[in-house]
């Protein structure tokens, strides 16, 4: 992660998300039951912190901005991602370490699965 991204993230507001102990496997699996959210999960796992969450950059140019925002909210509320608001920008990151501590091996299993 670039140092300017780290600084911006620290300056921003962390949007509401469940604590690690409150991440529920049913909610996680429900969130990933949608192919768009599974695509976003894989994208965040591969790229790390995302600042520009435009539809085009995320490979979702066929979706409206509001639809992408909805999917990002579902991922955050299920505990899969963290989102920081910095002005008009949003920084989104997979909560890999939190998920690994809560459900050991789950992230790797999901990433190695053949579903899109």
Explain what the structure shows.
By secondary structure, the protein is an alpha+beta fold. It has one domain (3-112): Winged helix-like DNA-binding domain superfamily/Winged helix DNA-binding domain (Arc Repressor Mutant, subunit A), CATH 1.10.10. It is 49% helix and 12% strand. The chain has helices at 3-11, 25-31, 35-47, 65-78, 96-102, 106-112, and strands spanning 13-14, 81-86, 89-94. A three-stranded antiparallel beta sheet has the order 1-2-3, sandwiched between helices. The longest helix is centred in the middle third of the chain and has 14 residues, at 65-78. The chain is globular and about 35 Å long.
User: In sequence order, what are the helices and strands, one letter per element?
Assistant: HEHHHEEHH
Helix content: 40-55%
CATH superfamily: Winged helix-like DNA-binding domain superfamily/Winged helix DNA-binding domain
Structure classification: alpha+beta
The total beta strand count reads 3
Strand coverage percent: 5-15%
Look up the CATH topology: Arc Repressor Mutant, subunit A
């Amino acid at each position: 992660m670039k140092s300017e991204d780290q600084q911006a993230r620290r300056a921003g507001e962390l949007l509401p998300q469940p604590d690690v102990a409150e991440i529920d496997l049913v909610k996680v699996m429900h969130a990933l039951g949608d192919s768009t959210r599974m695509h976003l999960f894989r994208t965040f796992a591969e790229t790390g912190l995302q600042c520009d969450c435009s539809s085009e950059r995320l490979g979702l140019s066929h979706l409206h901005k509001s639809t992408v925002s909805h999917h990002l909210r579902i991922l955050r509320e299920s505990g899969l991602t963290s989102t920081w608001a910095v002005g008009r920008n949003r920084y989104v990151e997979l909560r890999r370490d939190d998920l690994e501590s809560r459900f050991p091996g789950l992230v790797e299993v999901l990433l190695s699965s053949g579903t899109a």
